[in-house]
Amino acid sequence: MNIENRRELENTRTKLRELEQLHVKTAQESSGDKHVQELTLRSLKKRINQFKEESARFEARSGQATKSA
């Protein structure tokens, strides 16, 4: 997925905040299967990193476009 415009960037940032909050909440839970919890945390972290990378790539492209103009 590539972010194409500012609206998508803001939506991605909102999703990123929600995922980060869910990651913290999941990490703090003490009940349930620890293996499932660890897999969930890994999955959330992977998605968090993906959103951060997509945001950074968009911002880098936007900055280059602005400097070129």
Q: Which keywords apply here?
A:
single chain, 69 residues, mainly alpha, 0% strand, elongated
Q: Mind sketching the topology for me?
A:
Blueprint: H1 6-28, H2 34-68
Helix pairs in contact: 1-2
Short description:
The chain is 84% helix and 0% strand. It has 69 residues and is mostly helical.
Molecular structure report:
The protein has helices at 6-28, 34-68. It is an all-alpha fold and 69 residues long. It has one domain (6-68).
Query: Poorly predicted ranges (pLDDT <50, ≥5 residues)?
Result: none
- Overall domain count: 1
Mean pLDDT: 92
Shape: elongated
The share of residues in extended strands comes to under 5%
| Proportion of residues in helical segments | over 70%
Order of helices and strands: HH
Q: What distance lies between the first and last C-alpha atoms, to the nearest angstrom?
A: 26 Å
**Tally of contiguous helical segments:** 2
Number of strands: 0
Structural class by helix and strand composition: mainly alpha
The radius of gyration is 16 Å
How can the largest sheet be summarized? Answer: none
